[in-house]
Amino acid sequence: MPRTIWKGAVSFGLVHIPVALVPATTRTGIDFDWLDKRSMDRVGYKRINKTTGEDIDSDDIVKGVEYEKGHYVVISDEEIKAAHPKATQTVDIVAFVDARDISFLYIDTPYYLTPDRRGEKVYALLRETLIQTGKVGIANVVLRNKQHLAVVMPLGKALVMNTLRWAEEVRGVEYLELKDEALEPDLAERELDMAKRLVEDMTEKWKPEQYKDTFQDQIMDLVEKKAREGKLEAVGGPEEAVDRRGADVIDLTELLKRSLAAKPGKRAASEDDEAEATTSTRKPAAKKAAAKPDAKATTRARKTADEPRKGAPRKKAS
After folding, report:
1. Domains of the chain: which residue ranges?
2. Radius of gyration over every alpha carbon of the chain, rounded to an integer in angstroms
3. Spatial distance between the Cα atoms of 295 and 147, rounded to a whole number of angstroms
4. What is d(CA 72, CA 63) in angstroms, rounded to the nearest whole number?
5. Is the separation of the CB atoms in 17 and 10 below 8 Å?
6. Which residues pair with 161 in a beta bridge?
7. 61, 54 in Cβ contact below 8 A?
């Protein structure tokens, strides 16, 4: 089953589509651990004062932003927490634009949007509308207390949400300071025709699976070869604690389907349409109280622990 990292709704106008967010990518690569070559112990990271070289307790560390060279403004954890945007559990579409107008430079991280809690029909409605109009939705969304600009677009039978980079994060072409020869070149027609033929000869269908990370393959082949030759090192030292908790999944009240309603200035929807579009939301089921321990069982366990094991020698009285 796909791992859901977020649940909420896609919203535009008065239409709410219950959805779940699923990562569309996975990270691969080689994790190199640091080892002490003298003892083969693990090497960890330490908090060190860069001036004195001394270790620092986490309680003595604060966060600061450099305002001027060598001058910082200290920001408390409470101030940082207050500045985080409030999670709304909504992919709030604020506008629709032509899909071709969004540059690849702005695309950041892709996610699948899957219909959730009987939202299939309105999910399909948005998908088909975007396909037939050639539009995509520009949305605001908060993920893990961080605000993102995003684009909602169709991909086959699914909807995809790509987080976008903010405008100030993307450098314009003028950053390159290209010379006039590159911006407005004087190209000969014969050279252009030859370049076009070369592109046509090299054109093929996009098959991403045929492209491999050769570095990762070579490293893993080397690891397998050395392991077979017995070149394994026993690593000492305590195991480092690893946080294996998944991303937080927030339970939601059920966001049910609503029909399209006219925006201000347009013809209002009929009473029948409004009645059909409005539904009540369900309250989330109350959490079950944790089961209380059996007092008798606890007493028996303590007595058993206090009794000497069978066959164990008793201490002689002095």
Report:
1. 1-26+66-170+248-288
2. 30
3. 49
4. 9
5. yes
6. 111, 152
7. no
Instruction: Please give the residue that has the higher pLDDT: either 194 or 231.
Output: 194
Specify the pLDDT at position 51.
80
Contacts of 170 by beta carbon, 8 Å cutoff, 6+ apart: 103, 105, 106
Please list, in sequence order, all residues whose beta carbon lies within 8 angstroms of the beta carbon of residue 132, skipping any fewer than 6 positions away: none
Question: Per-residue pLDDT for 149 more than 90?
Answer: yes
Tokens of 285: 């089921």
State the average pLDDT over residues 221-228.
88
pTM: 0.58
Smallest CA-to-CA distance from 145 within 73, 64, 80 is with 80
Mean confidence (pLDDT) of the chain: 75
Q: Out of 2.60.200.30, 1.10.10.10, 3.30.450.20, 2.40.290.10, which CATH number does the structure's domain 1-26+66-170+248-288 have?
A: 2.40.290.10
User: Most distant CA pair in the chain: distance in Å?
Assistant: 111
The tokens for 62 are 């604060």
Helices marked H in 148-279 — which ranges? 180-183, 189-202, 214-228, 271-277
| pLDDT computed for residue 236 by the predictor | 63
